[in-house]
Amino acid sequence: MHWLLRRTVVTPSEVFYRSSPRNIELQRAREIAAALPPFISIVGLFVDAAPSEVEAVLAEIRLDVLQFHGDESPEACRLYGMSYMKAIRVRKDTNLLQYATQYHDARALLLDAYLPGMAGGTGQVFDWDLVPPQLPLPVVLAGGLNPDNVAEAIRQVRPYAVDVSGGVEQTKGIKDAGKIAAFMRGVQNAAL
Ligand SMILES: O=C(O)c1ccccc1NCC(=O)[C@H](O)[C@H](O)COP(=O)(O)O
């Protein structure tokens, strides 16, 4: 789930990664996509998926953006001729400027926490000081955000958008409407 900060727009992510507790089957993803109002972008999230797997989803659902959350190369991200976001799991020695050059045609870099053995949805915050202020691509800030820390995160990093999963859930994979509303208030409180 992403919040674009200039206009408060919520974009749902459909997770196509079997190891995730948030994974959804194609049929359910199709139902969600069909129920959305107009002008909402749908993000499809993949982790090192085979091209045939991504193509099978694209044949069934009109996705607007692909989110690659594994170790996909720039070439792998470009295979579908679609808008994409590349997730980078940030560590002390991560060279984000180099990633921005490699993935220069990405619509954004999604910066997430690094936790060994987990591709994403870790609930962990990473050190926001590791984000260089002059990154040439829009930043979607992720990793352990919640209603209490999102305003501070926005003030410090000044991202284009924020992304949250566990911080607005009752239990893994089940979103909580009250926490989502509190998160939205946190975003608005950042008052950029
Ligand atoms: O959410 C997952 O389970 C997941 C699993 C594997 C790769 C990516 C995954 N989620 C990607 C996201 O964009 C999450 O929103 C992001 O990692 C932040 O999660 P959280 O720290 O729980 O807010």
TrEMBL record:
Residues 11-184 form the N-(5'phosphoribosyl) anthranilate isomerase (PRAI) domain. Pfam families: PRAI. GO terms for molecular function: phosphoribosylanthranilate isomerase activity. Gene3D superfamilies: Aldolase class I (3.20.20.70). Pathway: Amino-acid biosynthesis; L-tryptophan biosynthesis; L-tryptophan from chorismate: step 3/5. HAMAP family: PRAI (MF_00135). Belongs to the TrpF family. This is N-(5'-phosphoribosyl)anthranilate isomerase. The lineage of its organism: Bacteria, Pseudomonadati, Pseudomonadota, Betaproteobacteria, Nitrosomonadales.
